[in-house]
Amino acid sequence: MAGRDSDQEAAANQKIKEDWISALIELMKQLKQWTVEQIKEWEISLQQGAVPCAIESTTERQEEYIGKYFAPMLLITSEECEVEVRPVGRFAIGAIGQVCMTNNRQAVNFLYSTRKGWFVMEYRKPLTRDMFLDLLRQMCQA
After folding, report:
1. Are 120 and 131 in contact (CB under 8 A)?
2. pLDDT tens readout for residues 37-52
3. N or C: which end of the chain has fewer CB within 10 A?
């Protein structure tokens, strides 16, 4: 009996890990799309100065229950700024997972809920394109 319980627990943890990685992939894909769309606008208007580029990468994470995994991250960089969007962990207090957006001087956290999607913790509001781009502008001007 104990073997079956541990097998069920391992399967449940594997499902948690897969769902978390899937949510991260979708988030990074959406953030990259918003960034690329904005970069095109900045290139046309030339108001931004140095126009950033968006680079997809991965980071290795290790968490209790779900073990080691590789998760997507996004690096938005130019001559003037570097902003990193990286997963913090699947098990966050009050949420299903947490992602941090930082320029190493300031940071904003996104929390994930399967019912409500991604929220900006500091503002307690849903993560939208406008909010993300405002945060990106602030971090690139800081």
Report:
1. yes
2. 887 777 776 655 556 7
3. N
The predicted-structure confidence for 63-120, as pLDDT tens digits, reads as follows 988 999 999 999 998 877 899 999 999 987 767 899 999 999 999 999 998 888 999 9
Spatial CB neighbours of 92, under 8 Å, sequence gap ≥ 6: 98, 111, 112
Instruction: Give residue 104's identity as a one-letter amino acid code.
Output: N
In the numeric block, which tokens belong to residue 28?
Answer: 């990074």
**What structural domains does the chain harbor?**
2-141 (3.30.920)
Q: Is the pTM of this model over 0.70?
A: yes
Among 123, 116, 97, residue whose Cα is nearest residue 23 = 97
Residue type at 60? E
Edge-to-edge order in the sheet of strand 107-113: 53-63, 67-77, 82-89, 97-102, 107-113, 117-120, 125-126
Are 74 and 56 within 8 A, CB to CB?
Answer: yes
The residues with which 101 forms a beta bridge, in sequence order, are: 85, 108
For residues 140 and 82, give the distance between their C-alpha atoms in angstroms, rounded to a whole number: 7
